[in-house]
Design brief:
Layout: H1 17-30, H2 33-47, H3 49-56, H4 60-67, H5 75-84, H6 100-103
Length: about 100
């Protein structure tokens, strides 16, 4: 007997702006481009991809393609999407990561 599954969409769980900012901040701290693009996509879906695409002047389909898992949008696209979402990037010094053993 096969188990029926449905695709998981984290956007359902990131409706609050505070949660969205925590997600994008966490993604940026990792420096992982795939995680960063995925986080932006989650926030975009949570806020409404159709409205966002209209604001950016792009098709919803192309926006989904750019922000899907494994998508590879250009930096200019990332900046435009972040601005449209009301998110700005800020620079700060890299914090030294303390090994877990040293924290105890």
């Amino acid at each position: 007997m096969a188990i029926e599954t449905r695709p998981f969409d984290a956007a359902k769980y990131f409706k609050a702006p505070e949660d969205q900012m925590e997600l994008i901040d966490d993604a940026l701290e990792t420096g992982d481009p795939g995680y960063i693009v995925n986080a932006i996509g989650v926030i975009a879906r949570a806020r409404g991809m159709t409205d966002l695409a209209g604001e950016l002047g792009v098709s919803r389909t192309s926006l989904y393609a750019a922000l899907k898992e494994g998508g590879n949008p250009g930096f200019a696209t990332v900046l435009k999407v972040l601005r449209a979402l009301g998110i700005e990037l800020a620079a700060r010094p890299v914090r030294e990561r303390i090994p877990e053993a040293a924290e105890a």
